[in-house]
Amino acid sequence: MKNEQIAASFDELADLLEVQGANPFRIRAYRNASRTIESLTDSLESMLESETDLTELQGIGKDLAGKIKELVETGTLEKLEELKSEVPPGVLDIMRLPGVGPKKAALLFKELNITGLPELKAAAEAGEIQKLKGFGKKTEESILSNIDQAAQAKEREFYATAEPLVEEIVDALSELSSTKQVSPAGSFRRRKETVGDLDILVTSDDAEQVMDALASHELVQEVLQRGDTKQRVRLIKGLEMDLRVVPEESYGAAMQYFTGSKEHNIVMRKRAQKRDLELNEYGLFSGKKSIAGKTEEEIYQALDLAWIPPELREDRGEFELAEKDQLPELITLEDIRGDLHMHTTATDGTASIQEMIEAAKERGRKYMAITDHSKRVTMANGLDADRLRDHWRDIRKVAEKIKGIHVLCGIECDILEDASLDLPDEVLEEADWVIAVLHYGLKQDKAQIHKRLMTAIKNPHVDIIGHPTGRLIGKRPGAEMDISEILKAAADHEVMMEINAHPSRLDLNSLHAAAAKELGIPIVISTDAHSTGGMDVMRYGVFQARRAGLSAKDVANCRTWAQFKKLLK
DNA sequence: GCCGTTTTCGGCCCGACTGTTTTCAGTCG
């Protein structure tokens, strides 16, 4: 059983306990454990095999260690099955409606025997809901207006999808006469792969003006809530945005608070408590006296911490580093010197060799690799040995005429389902740069996936593994593998690892990339561009690298050409 | 259900907004 499934079981257990009105701290314990499990790089299955003591893990005690064992060994959890028989699964769907939480969902179930969204809709239409204690006309209306959308299950959007919307709104609010500071906060500021809600913080002496401006912005479809300091709106694409107007002296505290993550903030508040202080979104207080609040820096400083970049605020070791002032200097887009994964019209790209080289040059790259598909990818018109050699000849011819950029003749070579490579060794040997990738058979069992990746890692001509897990965010999970074993092998055989910068891939993820860094594996951030414009996704790969705590020195394509050349096989 | 430099019990982060109440519970972030 995969870690994600175990984590999901604990989350479901927590949801069900919530409906039953169980001890909130017990519920939190399950959620904390789920989070711990999600951030593991080793599989619990293999940890159990090697008899690792699971209670060593944060938030896992004797009981939960036992439940993990039960899940791994039997594939089910007795406690979870028991709760599921008591609370119909549809009740959890109801709980996810805005404005309906565990208490209301439980009441609907108990009083009206409502067990799912369809029954709820019928009851609301019949006017049954507003008669319940604690419910009213407005709640009933809200349920009716949200239920269809909820039935379609609200999805998170890629960071890259939200980015232009956020930027446009920040710009519009910045132009108002009353606003002084305007900034996104929340998971967007932390540069998460996907974002659910968007948060914007503003300092202004005229909150009305700011809220009116947002309400009438062309990207806003509907105002969902409006108070004195907070407004919630729905943007196009279904994204929801919270605007908060805060006083100038609290701006730093509000930024800190609303940037999160929740887990990071809990540690911050506990730290404040230990020093007999109180931290909230208005500032850091000693009794009623404000000690800090205007900037984030002064808040972190008052708690004996260096300022922590938003990308690292996940309570995954950043506090330890900030205490010792050993936070990494995170990589920036300006550090990038090369782009080593891209396609041309030879396979499924839309631009010619010349256009791609010129586009890379325009973006300031000093070196690049053209890496079209190998023959297995028939859909993309993948290259066999003969066509590939012709293609390389063409690349060299064009590259000769363009000065100021080094062009590598590369290949994105498929690792086939039978654990062989799609091109023979003597062809790979001629390549300047070989990316080995899994495209097909991602659902094969763990052992076969492992065998395939090991074939590539052990091949003397393979420079790097591209989009190592093959996941597509929100669409399909990656191939099943023990990533720490794969990374160890890559380190042993001096094979690099890619962070594919495409917003739907971002593969390696930040945890995997951090693990790769620990092993000293050079990481390459690549755009996988299929057009000249496709090279602009580099920034998202850099954000991913930042969330992994990577510095320029950890990323191979930040090196100068002379330095990078030495890494080639 | 977890955890411990006030340790094996008694805590566990905190405020705004809404809708329902008429002083507050539930929900949300």
Q: How would you describe the overall organization of this protein?
A:
It is a single chain. The chain is of the alpha/beta class and 569 residues long. It folds into four domains: 3-154, DNA polymerase, domain 1 (Orthogonal Bundle), CATH 1.10.150; 157-245, Beta Polymerase, domain 2 (2-Layer Sandwich); 250-323, Beta Polymerase, domain 3; 333-567, Metal-dependent hydrolases (TIM Barrel, Alpha-Beta Barrel). Helices cover 43% and strands 15% of the residues. The strands form four sheets. It has a seven-stranded parallel β-sheet. A five-stranded mixed β-sheet has the order 2-4-7-6-5, with helices on both faces. Strand 14, helix 20 and strand 15 (464-465) form a beta-alpha-beta unit. It is globular. The model has no long low-confidence stretch (mean pLDDT 91). The chain binds one DNA strand of 29 nucleotides through residues 23-30, 32-33, 58-64, 98-104, 133-139, 142, 186, 197, 199, 225-230, 232, 242, 244, 257-258, 260, 262, 265-266, 268-270, 272-273, 278-282.
Tell me the layout of helices and strands:
Elements: H1 3-19, H2 24-38, H3 44-49, H4 62-74, H5 78-86, H6 90-95, H7 102-112, H8 117-125, H9 137-151, E1 157-158, H10 159-174, E2 179-185, H11 186-189, E3 194-195, E4 197-204, H12 207-215, E5 220-226, E6 230-235, E7 240-246, H13 251-259, H14 262-274, E8 278-280, E9 283-286, E10 289-292, H15 296-302, H16 318-323, E11 338-339, H17 353-362, E12 367-373, H18 385-401, E13 406-414, H19 425-430, E14 433-437, H20 446-458, E15 464-465, H21 483-492, E16 496-500, H22 510-518, E17 523-526, H23 538-547, H24 561-565
Parallel strand pairs: 4-7, 11-12, 12-13, 13-14, 14-15, 15-16, 16-17
Antiparallel strand pairs: 1-3, 2-4, 5-6, 6-7, 8-9, 9-10
Helix pairs in contact: 1-2, 1-5, 8-9, 13-15, 22-23
The chain binds one DNA strand of 29 nucleotides through residues 23-30, 32-33, 58-64, 98-104, 133-139, 142, 186, 197, 199, 225-230, 232, 242, 244, 257-258, 260, 262, 265-266, 268-270, 272-273, 278-282.
